[in-house]
Structures are given as structure tokens and as C-alpha cells.
Amino acid sequence: MAPTRPEPVLSVVVPMFNEEAVLPLFARRLRVVLDGLGEAYEVVAVDDGSTDGTPAGLAALRVGWPGLRVVRLRRNSGHQAALVAGVLRAHGRYVVSIDADLQDPPETIGEMLRRARADDLDIVYGVRDDRSTDSPFKRWTAGAYYRLMRRLVGKQVPAQAGDFRLLSRAAVEALRELPERSPVLRLVVPWLGFPSGAVTYRRQERPAGRTKYPLTRMVGLAAESVTSFSAAPLRFATWLGLAGVVVCGLLVVLAVAAWLAGATVTGWPSLYVAILFLGAVQLLCLGLLGEYVARIYTAVQGRPAYFVATDTADERHRPAEPAPVEVVEDTDDPAPVAGDAATVLTDARR
């Protein structure tokens, strides 16, 4: 029987989607870091329905890397869903999540683990204090996102902290208790209120492959973050409606004053502007309301955010099938079987 691996102290969760180009370099750097820690570990690579050579690359890496565990989702469910799937299935006392693009350096993991133990922290954030490798537009949009999240959610959301973080087992179990279908972890984790700290690092350039977060997905993440964690847009729609009422009231006063002064003329420009303004306000409010109704509809459906197709950890713990039993027949003196019970009793009476 092959020796069983000890329960991991550290689990490293890596969501992946079409990372064939960067996978060998990422695996090489990550393994050097983890082997040097002197701790039992597992790497939970979550294949989010990749369509390139990522599954084959992970299978090849597992041959010589016993600490690598591959969780494959049945379809592409999105980065946040793959991240949640890996975190909730990890076995370690500490769980670190990191992307495979090497923009977040794996060498920071050891510092995170030491900080968590030294200060008895349940959460350690990786904070990017230097984003000079990003484009000016990327830095501006990222800064705007974090300013908005801190204003809506609170100051507990660390600025410039993405999905590179360490969680204790207690924090992971708290996440497991949440009823949300697809939580945005960069907002939910600070909301838990566990003791937390941070380590800083310089964000690096992606060495290979293409980014999985273009502008459209960044906007989608921002919308998902806002609508999943705050009702502020609905309040904004209310205040916008009140502002429209005030503006229209002023226009009515001006119109009455002009009529009393006998200065009424054909006022199609003011009428045109008023109709456009009211129509825009109404459509905006309906759109915001529709976003929340859509989230309610999705929650009522109760569909899981992801489906796990395979997990190599299940293969290691699967019990061995019993060996087939060979039946040997003795033709000289056959033993009676259950079906011949009546014949045996008849022979005994004789």
C-alpha cells in the first residue's frame, strides 16, 4: 500500500482558464517556494473549463509532483466561481489563493504564512504597493474600483488588494456558512471581521499568455461587486428621481410665471429637454431595479455557481475494489444450494 500523505498545513488555490503558456513557469516557481517552506502542502489547481492544453499540462505535472491536486469544473463558470470552488474544497489549515499569471509573486506566500502565525491572524492580504508595470488606464480604473468599494462597503476593504490572500481554517469555515450563490471574495472576506493584516509586494508583468480580465470583465466585476453587496444604487435611483421631481417643479413654476406675465411662446426646446430628462431618469431607475430583480431571480432558482467534474483527491481516497471470488465446482459431490431445499428435505424423510 502506498504511504498516505499527511494532512496539509498549507493549501494553495490556483484558478486557471487557458493558462497553457504560463503554466510551466508558474509551476516551477511555485514548487520551489513551497518545497522550501518545510511544511506539508497541497496545490489545488482549479481548471475552469479550459479549452487549450491546460488540462494536459496539469496531468503531466501531477506525474512528478505529488503535492499537486487538480479540480476540474464541468464548464467555464468564471474566475470568482473557480476561486470559491478551490477555497471551499481545500484541506489545509491555511489557504492561500493566487492567480497563475505570475503578476502576484509566489515568493510572497512564505511571508504571508509567517505573518499569520506571528501575529495570530486569520486573514493576510497581498497588497500591491507598486503597480508601475500596469498601464495608466489600468491603474486609474483599479484605483476607481477600490475607492468605490471602500465608499460603499467600508474602510475594512483594503485598497489595492485583489484575490491574493491567506485565510485560516476558521475563515474558510465561515465562508462555507454563507448562503450566497457566488460571493465576491474581495468584499465578503473583509466583511467577516476576522483579525487581518497585510504584506506588500510589487505587481509584476505577465510573462506569457493573455489577461483574463479585459475592460468588459472589469466592468462586470464592478457591477457584480456593487449589486451583490450594497443597496446604494437603489438609493441613488431614489435620490435621482427626487432631483427630477425638483427640476420639473421648477419648470412648472417658471411656466406659470411666464403665463401670468403674458410671455408664453412656443416652448418646444424646454419641453423636449424635460421629456428627455424624465425619460432618462426613469430608464436608469428601471435598469438599476432590474439588476436587483435579476439577482433575486437567480437566488430563487438556487442553481449552483459551478459543478465539479473531477477531483484527483477523490481518486486517492477511493477504496480499492474487492477482488473477484473464484467459484470452484466439485462435480463428484455437489453441495445443495438454496434453490434445492425441498429436494434435500425429501431425501432426509426417505
Task: Describe this structure in a few short sentences.
With 350 residues, this protein is α/β, with parallel strands linked by helices. The protein is built from 12 helices and 8 strands.
Give the rounded overall mean pLDDT: 78
**Percent helix:** 40-55%
CATH class of the largest domain: Alpha Beta
Please count the helical segments: 12
Query: Low-confidence parts lasting 5 or more residues at pLDDT below 50?
Result: 317-350
Percent of residues in beta strands? 5-15%
C-alpha end-to-end distance: 55 Å
Strand order of the largest sheet: 7-5-6-4-1-2-3-8
- Spatial shape: elongated
How many domains is the backbone divided into?
2
Number of strands: 8
CATH topology of the largest domain: the name is Spore Coat Polysaccharide Biosynthesis Protein SpsA, Chain A
Class of secondary structure makeup = alpha/beta
CATH superfamily label of the largest domain: Spore Coat Polysaccharide Biosynthesis Protein SpsA, Chain A
Question: Which architecture name of the largest domain does CATH use?
Answer: Alpha-Beta Complex
